[in-house]
Every structure is written in structure tokens, then in C-alpha cells.
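Subject: sequence -> C-alpha cells, single chain

Hey, anyone have a minute? Need the predicted structure for the following. Not urgent.
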Amino acid sequence: MHAWRPPLRHLFPFSFLFFSFFNQAALTQAALIQRCPATEASSAITVGFLPQRPPRSRVRTMKLSRTVAYAVQATLQLAQAEGKAPMPCSIIASRGHMPERFLLQILRNLVTHGILQSTRGVQGGYSLEKPPEQISLLEIIEAIDGPLVASVATHAGLHEHSLARLQQVLEGITAKTRRDLAAVKLADLLPGGKS
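Reply:
Had a minute. Here:
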């Protein structure tokens, strides 16, 4: 019998934030471009996460990296087994159909960031460091992929005021996204959790 896997709607309750994030950033970019003197007519604006070529589709999607998806899947397994003996990496990998060696690196990273605890010995394995109600989706994502921050690539043709304003806007959007992700707890992704 395969281990329970949460529906995609539980794993991606925050995807709409990134639709808004990209769309608002694109509108902001267009609004900040001003007419420049002839010497700067060919100047362009470059933003780290915005495409420099016209997109093929108007739809923007936020995707979890495979590493983060494995981390979420593993922590959900451990949340379901909370109160039981530590679970070895081999069992977590087998139940979740994940590559064991790759998963081992992920679990160690989660231990380093205080999300999991590791127990050595014959009966050793991994377990949650704290209750699933106290572990946020933001913690898991940032433990694997690093801090979620706004990044604007500087360019000689971008006016200083426009650059500062764009950075300010993106920082505000990023801050809201982080708050929303922090509000989603591991317990919410379990069967019976709030939708």
C-alpha cells in the first residue's frame, strides 16, 4: 500500500501569490520606464526574475523545486507518524518513491535548520523536531532553497530613482508572500487540515 500523498491543491495553496507577484512586478516595470534622452534611448530595464523576451503565455506559474517537493513529502510522512519511533531514510524514500541518497541530503539539511531531528543507532531515523502545527511551509522552502528575497539586477540605463522604487515595490510583495507562506503550517497539509 502506498503512503498517502496530499492533493496538489494542498501542496500549492500559495500559488496564486506568485501569479500576482509576477503580474504586479511586470506592471510596475512598465510604469517605471520613462522617456530618456537620445543618448539613453536604447537603455533597457533588467529584473532578475522577469523574462527579457516576450513570454509565450500570459500565465505565470510558481513551481516547487523537486528538492522542496521531496522535503514537503518527507515531513508530511513524519508528521503522520508523529509520536512513533524515528523513521529511517530508507523507509521514507520507499514509501514516497524518492531516491534514497538524494533524500538523505535533504533530511540532513532539514535537521540543520531545526525542522527534523536525527536519532542514531539500530532503531534510529528521523522525526519532527517540533509539532506540525509549528512548522511552516516557508521554513521548509527556505531550508532547502534559501531565503526568499527580492532581487533586481542593476543596469547602467536604469535611472537611480526607478531602481530604488522598483526594489521597494518588489520587497513589499516578497514580504507579503513570506507572511502568507509562513501562515501555512505542515498540519494544514495533512488529511483533515484546513483548506
